[in-house]
Amino acid sequence: MKSVCRLKFKEPTPIQKACIPAGAHQGKDVIGAAETGSGKTLAFGIPIIQRLLEERDKFERQVEERGQADDKIVAKGFLRALIITPTRELALQVTDHLKQVARGTDVKVVPIVGGMSTEKQERLLNGRPEIVVGTPGRLWELMSGGELHLVELHSLSFFVLDEADRMIDNGHFQELQSIVDMLPMVREGHAEDSENCVTDLGFQRKKRQTFVFSATIALSSDFRKKLKRGSVKAKQDDELNSIEALSERAGMRSNAAIIDLTNASIMANNLEESFIECKEEDKDAYLYYILSVHGQGRTIVFCTSIAALRHLSSLMKILNVNVWTLHAQMQQRARLKAIDRFRGSDHGILIATDVAARGLDIPGVRTVVHYQLPHSAEVYVHRSGRTARASADGCSIALISPKESSKFASLCRSFSKESFKQFPIEASYMPEVLKRLSLARQIDKVLRKESQDKADKSWFQRNAESIELMVDENDSDDERANKIRKKKAGSAQLKKLQQELNSLLSRPLQPKTFSSRYFTGAGISPSLQQQIVELAKQKIGDFGNTGDNKRKKMIVIGQDCVEPLQALRSSGQEVSMDTKGAAEKRRNLDNLRRKRKEDKKRLHDQKRKERKRLKAGD
């Protein structure tokens, strides 16, 4: 309770209100579903720590009654809770939350994830922690290697699957199936045999509790009957392709508490969704516009591919936009460093793939930008769930190219969304934005060419050295001189482009019609109106603090003052999403494209036959 107060949690969230009594007081298994950011970690974390502390108190009383010499009463040293998560970052985050709640006790919580030293993790396990949080791959690697602390599952009191819907993706988590199959069988109807039995392990043998949590849930009407049948005989040959199958194989009991708090729209209630229609090649420009004109609060930009992420981060860095990146090909240390730096910046920008879409709880994320649409509606939900967490508000912005319009329409259908807000764009900014972006692309092209040339040269030299060959320069003097001239010309071009871009970046980004003397001459946009109101409030405050000589932060009219959510609420227009019409339009375009392709092929065949006929006539 002291730890909960220290964390400034004043009341439990709805999922915690439902799960904690069922798990901690009634001892039930739990299947829980709630929107992202609803507090699911402590919904299973508090019952685990509560039970461990209760048992410790009971053991200490028994030790006092029996005397200190009784070696059979041992309350520590066995694995009591195994928590499995789909990603490394989520495992480390869950570990951090549990450590904060267990602060002041001697309950040990250890993360076991890939990308880190196996030897170090084995040393951590040698400390005999009661709670282990891990990813399936590294856990199974250590289990199959005979790690004693992980294979002693007879003492396990809690088995938790967090983000279970992600872990049932076919072909991704075969290790999870192997871990679940190692769990001791749980039989119903035998509580009387062991209810009051104190074992040599030093705790009462109780039925293992299973917690399965997800952002979405879909269970059949006869699910409890399946659990009752499956509790006696596990179906080892079935695939873990659903939450039902996973829960049954893990030994969940038929009296499990099923808690589904997902709302009809699945998305968080305080989330404002919006979109921007643009060409594929203009996405960079609109993203730069959002980050520059509305660069308030933490922002996560999601890409589907790592190639797009690298292209985007390179452009933003050239444009002096400080960004961090996160993707699966990064080393674990670099991934953790990127997340820590993003957390430490009030207005940080993280460009990430879907590895960051699940479970990450980073406070203060105000905006999520879908630079590329995800492949499924489920991933879209989890991406958008990085903002508007724990009753806070936030907004998501999807950049939609013509090719993605049908995919976006299908997303709307899956959420039963009939309308979306269109994010307001002030067109007068775009000429300046496009000018900066054009220079940045040219610089990026030159830098990529130089980097590729160096990589090719070093690759050739490395391979020549590996087979002990001497590389001779066979170029003539003219060729070498020509190469030097080209290199100098490229350097001069790069320097010129950088100087031109730096000149533009040295000035605040302003609308094309903006006048530094009479800014009302271009008309007052909603964004400018909002900024003028904010400045007026500051001015009134300054009159009351005339003796304060502290320098105030200078605010540039037209830049970095209105965050995306404010702009969306003040001037975003609701647009009806005609999903049927969009699908019909897409079908018509596909039919037209197919017809053109067939006509082209037929014309090509006719010309080929005509050429053959003429050749035969000659």
Architecture overview:
48% of the residues lie in helices and 11% in strands. It is an alpha/beta fold and 618 residues long. Helix 11 (223-230) packs parallel to helix 12, helix 14 crosses helix 18 and helix 17 (405-414) packs antiparallel against helix 22 (579-617). It has two domains: 13-61 and 72-260, 3-Layer(aba) Sandwich (Rossmann fold); 268-542 and 552-577, Rossmann fold (3-Layer(aba) Sandwich), CATH 3.40.50.300. The protein has an eight-stranded mixed β-sheet, sandwiched between helices. A seven-stranded parallel β-sheet has the order 3-4-2-5-6-1-7, sandwiched between helices.
Structural class: alpha/beta
Stated plainly, the CATH topology of the largest domain is called: Rossmann fold
Gyration radius (Cα, Å) is 30 Å
CATH class identity of the largest domain: Alpha Beta
